[in-house]
Write a structure and sequence with these properties.
The chain contains 6 helices and 4 strands, in the order H-H-H-E-H-H-E-E-E-H. It is of the alpha+beta class and 159 residues long. A 4-stranded mixed sheet has the order 2-1-3-4, covered by helices on one side. The chain binds FE2/S2 (inorganic) cluster (FES). The site of FE2/S2 (inorganic) cluster has 11 residues, from helix 4.
Length: 159
């Protein structure tokens, strides 16, 4: 049974152009969250409230989806997302050194975001491009046969 959210009404002006594009059906939950994340950079507690209200579903359902799927972030992410594959093929071909170089260059560990919100770094499982190992994905673009030096150079080009 659907329940309306009991939280105080929150308004996020950034989402004024987003919400009207989605019908008020539960089936819209994931696509709406994806667009909210594209807009805000993450799914804030307020965004979860707004989503629940718009779709007339409990906030707990929204929270459940956001925390279930690794594509959603609960904290603000950097403008550039750097994902270093830690799958077996990439691991044996130097992924650890890449992570070390990227972390040293940005001053953050995997799972963290730089203070200026320019970069977030993540360790991820196999991208399915093992023939290109080691693989780094920056802002959804896949780079293969990456060396630590190349990774640092790619970051420098984005600064
Ligand atoms: S192990 Fe890295 S792409 Fe498969």
């Amino acid at each position: 049974m659907k329940r309306r959210s009991k939280s105080p009404v929150v308004h996020l002006p950034e989402l004024d152009g987003v919400l009207p594009r989605y019908t008020r059906e539960e089936s819209q939950l994931i696509p709406l969250l994806q667009e909210i994340q594209d807009t805000l950079g993450y799914i804030s507690p307020e965004a979860m409230q707004v989503t629940a209200r718009h779709l007339n579903v409990p906030e707990s359902s929204v929270y459940g989806v956001v925390t279930f799927y690794s594509q959603f972030y609960l904290t603000r992410q950097g403008r550039h997302k750097v994902k270093v594959c830690q799958g077996t093929a990439c691991h044996v071909r130097g992924a650890v050194e890449i992570i070390r170089a990227v972390s040293a260059r940005l001053g953050i560990k995997p799972g963290e975001t730089t203070e200026d919100f320019e970069f977030s770094v993540e360790r991820v499982a196999c991208f399915g491009s093992c023939a290109l190992a080691p693989v780094v994905v920056i802002d959804e673009k896949v780079y293969g046969n990456v060396t630590p030096e190349m990774a640092v150079r790619m970051l420098d080009e984005l600064v």
